Each structure stands twice: as C-alpha cells, then as structure tokens.
C-alpha cells in the first residue's frame, strides 16, 4: 500500500512538473528566450507535442509498476511463488492488464465494490457451529453500505430452513438475502413460464410455493432420494421425450453423508439426459448463471461484486468466471494448495471469513 501511495505521489509530481515545464516554455518564448529549437526539427511547436508525449510516456512508465489500488496488495501472487515455476513475464503482464481492465470497468461505472456474496456451509458456519468471529465480521460488513447475499447450492433445504439455522447461530440475516440453487431454479421456471414436475426433496417444495405444477411440461430435478424410483423417473423420462425442458439444481456426482458417501443428483440427471438425448440446464454453482442470478435486481454488475467461499472451483472459480472477484477461505472443505486448482488463481486466499471481511473493508471499499 505504501508503495502504491508513493507511486501515485510520484505520478502526481510528474504531472505538476510537466505542466510547470510547459508554462515555463511559454513564458520563455514570450520574452523571446524560447529553448525548444531542435527537439522536433522544423520549428512548428515541436516542444509542446513531444513534451506531451513524453509526459504521457513517463506517467505510463510510473503507472506500469502500479497495481490497481482496489486490488490491494498482491496476496495471491505471493502464494503463487510457492509454485514450481514463477509466472512467466507475459503471464504476469496479462494478469496486470486484466487487473487494469477490471479497474477501468469499475471506474467507468464510477463505483467501487457494491455487493458481497457469501457461501454458507464451510464459510460462515460449519454444520452447526459458526466460524469463530463470523457474526461480528458480518456486522462490520453491514456497517459498510454493500449489498450482501448468502448463496448456496443446497437441493433440499428451503430458504426458510437455512434462515432458521443461521438465526440459531446468531447471524443477523433476512430471508430475502438468501439465494440458493432452488431460488435459481424457481426463477428459471418463472422465466420460461412452464409447469414443472418437481423431483426435489419434500423440504425444498416450500421454495416453489405458488408455482403451478399440475399437468407438468417441464422437469426440475434436485437430490430427492425418496422420489428416485422407477415409476417417477419414468414419468420424467416421458415428459422429456415430449419436449419438456430438464432443469437440474446441480450435477454433483456424490456427496458425503454421516454414514458414508452417497449418490448425488448428477447420476440421475445424467441418466435422464442419456435416455432422452437431451441436455439439462444446470442452475447451481459453479454455473455462471447462478452468480448472475444472485445479483439480479440489485443493480450491481458482476465486476462490482466479490464472492467469498471455501470451494475453490465452485465458489471462487465460478464467481471469477462470471466476472466477479473470488476470495477463498481456508475453512470448511479447503485443503492445502486448493488455490492452485484454478486459473486465474483466486483474487485472494485467506484464513477465514473475518479475514476476508477485513480485506474488503480495507482494500475494496
Ligand atoms: C454444490 O454443487 C457442487 C457442484 O455441482 C457440488 O460439488 C457440491 O457438493 C454441491 N453442494 C451441495 C451442498 O449440494
Ligand atoms: C458442510 O461443510 C462441511 C465442511 O466442509 C462438510 O463436511 C459437510 O458435509 C457440509 N454439510 C452439508 C450439509 O453440505
């Protein structure tokens, strides 16, 4: 940061200096002591033009060493140093150009960070225990005027269930701040104006209240162990054959349960795709649409948002792929060197949610 400020100061000094030089020139010319002979050749004001060029060039040179201030210090780059080979100069330049482009986009909209997306399980809490300091950190984040959304790709817990659990853990959260893959599926159903057959866990039905489901002409599929049997899957199969769209909450192959690993919705979605030779629209993380939908109605562009999560691919990679910044926290499912699994790497990797909040408050707002 100190270096950044210093460079900015340097650039400002350069500007002032250059302006002084230009005026001095005019002053000298007025009194007949012009000194710009020979610089540009033919006498027709070569000085101003070439000096302007020089000014621009010098400012550019100084700025080249700069990292856009809102990107803060270079945390991920430092970690990348641990890789077997350092990033090549061209890759480095590319990263820098990307950073500058992001900054330019931010500046074009004249706003800094507007929204923070936060993953739930693994980031804010782990099962039934809050991450230490997370409640206070959330309060601090609320002190800054940013939109906060809690995003998760649950297929069985309704927003209401999630809210209850979070309130029990003493998080100050309201239901309309929660965005899940079920919300994303509901939005898509409404957008397409279809009547879905809801192949989801009974607890998830709550999030589809008010949606017409009689005489279905679409299939929404999540993880529904109680419903995944032949007659029901066959009914879905026949609807799809008739041209009904297939909407999948997500396609996880398997997940961890208390009694061991268990089949996720992925194999069932893939089975239906295979049988009907169609492709499902997947709405959960890490799909780009998931992150874009989470911002819908907030008036916030992806470039003005940051996502905090413990899953390098699904949270951080997905969000960055949608144009946001991604912060990886080392809680929940994080394992050593996870941050090396995606390219470009996470914007930042830090210990936990409270650290991520501190960084945002110090560097992104
Ligand atoms: C969310 O989706 C990802 C990718 O499909 C999957 O790996 C993960 O287990 C899912 N999480 C939950 C809570 O369902
Ligand atoms: C919550 O996160 C923990 C840690 O990553 C994981 O072990 C657990 O399976 C997750 N629970 C759910 C319901 O996804």
Automatic annotation (TrEMBL):
Cofactor(s) the protein requires to work: Mg(2+)
Superkingdom of source: Eukaryota
CDD domains for this protein: HAD_PPase
Keyword annotations from UniProtKB, A to Z: Magnesium, Metal-binding
Membrane-spanning parts: none
Record Pfam families: Hydrolase_6, Hydrolase_like
Gene Ontology MF terms in the entry: metal ion binding; phosphatase activity
Any one annotated GO CC term: cytoplasm
UniProt similarity note: Belongs to the HAD-like hydrolase superfamily.
NCBIfam families cross-referenced by the UniProt entry: HAD-SF-IIA, HAD-SF-IIA-hyp3
Protein name: Haloacid dehalogenase-like hydrolase domain-containing protein 2
Taxonomic lineage: Eukaryota, Metazoa, Chordata, Craniata, Vertebrata
